[in-house]
Amino acid sequence: MSAPAPLPRAFYARPVLDVARDLVGCVLAHGETSGVIAETEAYHDSEPACHAYVGLTPRTRTLFGPPGHAYVYRSYGIHALVNAVSEAEGIGAAVLIRALEPLDGLPAMRARRGLERVEDLCSGPGKLTQALAIELNGNDGDLVDGPIRILPRPPERPAPELIAGPRIGITKAAELPWRFCARGSRSVSKPWPPGLLPPRSGRR
DNA sequence: CATGGGATTGACT
DNA sequence: GTCAATCCCATGC
Question: A158 is in which domain, residue-wise?
Answer without folding.
Answer: 9-182
